[in-house]
Amino acid sequence: MKKVTKLRSTVLAAAITTTFTLGVVGQATAGPAPLAPLDSIKVPIPPDNKLTPAKVELGKLLFFDARIGGDASTGCSTCHEPDQGWAWAEDFSRGYPGTVHWRNSQTVINSAFYPRQFWAGSASSNEKQAKSAAKGGVAGNGESDIMEARLALIPEYVKRFKEVYGTEWPLISDVWGAISAFERTLNTVGKYEAPLDKYLKGDKSALSKQQLAGKAVFEGKGGCIQCHNGALITDSDFHNIGVPPNKRWEEDGLAQITFRFEQYAKGMTQEGYRKAKSDWGFYYRSKNKWDRGKFRTPSLRYVKYTAPYMHNGIFYTLEDVVDFYNRGGKDEDGRTTPFPENMDKRIKPLGLSDQEKEDLVAFIESMSGPEITMKKPAMPPYAPLFTKAQLQAAQEAK
Ligand code: HEC
Ligand code: HEC
Fold this sequence. Notes:
This protein is mostly helical. The protein folds into two domains: 190 residues, Cytochrome c-like domain (Cytochrome Bc1 Complex, Chain D, domain 2, Orthogonal Bundle), CATH 1.10.760.10; 131 residues, Cytochrome c-like domain (Cytochrome Bc1 Complex, Chain D, domain 2). 39% of the residues lie in helices and 1% in strands. The chain is built from 16 helices and two strands. It has a two-stranded antiparallel sheet with strand order 1-2. Helix 9 packs across helix 15 and helix 14 crosses helix 15. The longest helix has 21 residues. It is globular. The termini are far apart. Bound molecules: heme C (2 copies). One heme C binds next to helix 14 and helix 15. The site of one heme C (HEC) has 27 residues, from helix 14 and helix 15.
């Protein structure tokens, strides 16, 4: 009996020590997953959507083809531009013509690893994500039957879908599968490996002295590792870290329209619809008030290329992000989340020196390797409506 009590108190003491060193209040679990190289995990591939080179090639064409969308102007690559970090370099993403989006466009690089996609985690796979992106009112705004009909009029697609899926005509459900197969190849492994991965795999020269100093801040005084951890450098969980609303919702009419539309589309209560002045994040899914202002922890991989940052893109540099954390989740004007009661207890003023802040930024940069560039492929043309012979015959019949 006594022994058990003793054991218990030792465990408790150990827990308290961990708690103390991590600066975590009320969390007595073992420490967070250590940082790990990305190739220590595998891209999840659903059994019903095997990766084949032909499917990936088809998916690449479709990803760049704006005919997968409403008026054939806005395809995936429109808002996920390879030379804008496979995202869109504005606070809010550009939207379907006549609209702006309401959230920051996320990079598609490494997205295949996420168990839940989007800032509030509303899609559980690339397949579901692609479908909702192509059809969503402020994104692709496409209609399934029209997109499918367009593909049937493009002989190159008819041929490729038949080869890959064995169907007479391209099916829209296979479009999501093919795009997802392509996205699963957009990873920062191999040639695109980050210096941090090389370091973690044993190449101790891969990080500079400053980056190593930054690593110590990341894992120690800065406490970043508590949420940005493991091989993907995220816990894939949802937290409110204090990001203040984007003022564009007060100043920009188009942004305000999308904001209101999204409140309505996401099933807000009457009162919420009238009063909301900010993105309620994970709340739209759970409808629990303690989830207001929570968003998925993004991976920090590839962030060198994906500014601006956060769900509403309010910070344009990594320096700004670090200053925000150093102030305990406040911007330079002292603005914070409208739901301070939901703020993660681990976000608090850090007291970092200028040197420590610079080191931290240098370390975050070591999480990005070479930029993944890609030229837009040539788009296969529609079949002509009539053959030459038919046109000639029509001419002669006149
Ligand atoms: C009009 C702009 C726009 C278009 C078109 C668009 N996206 Fe996005 N994409 C976004 C925005 C903005 C987000 C974040 C939205 C959110 O979280 O609510 C996003 C999120 C994503 C994510 C989630 C990444 C993550 O980290 O969870 C993936 C993957 C993605 N888009 C792929 C696609 C694909 C595939 C298509 C084409 C079928 C597409 N997008 C079309 C703007 C766009
Ligand atoms: C309590 C969990 C938590 C901790 C601790 C934390 N983060 Fe974050 N981080 C998040 C979440 C959640 C977001 C997205 C928030 C949003 O969009 O509203 C985020 C966003 C970011 C982004 C923006 C990435 C992007 O793609 O937009 C960067 C950079 C970042 N964090 C770095 C850090 C650094 C550096 C530290 C340590 C000083 C840190 N984080 C500590 C959870 C955390």
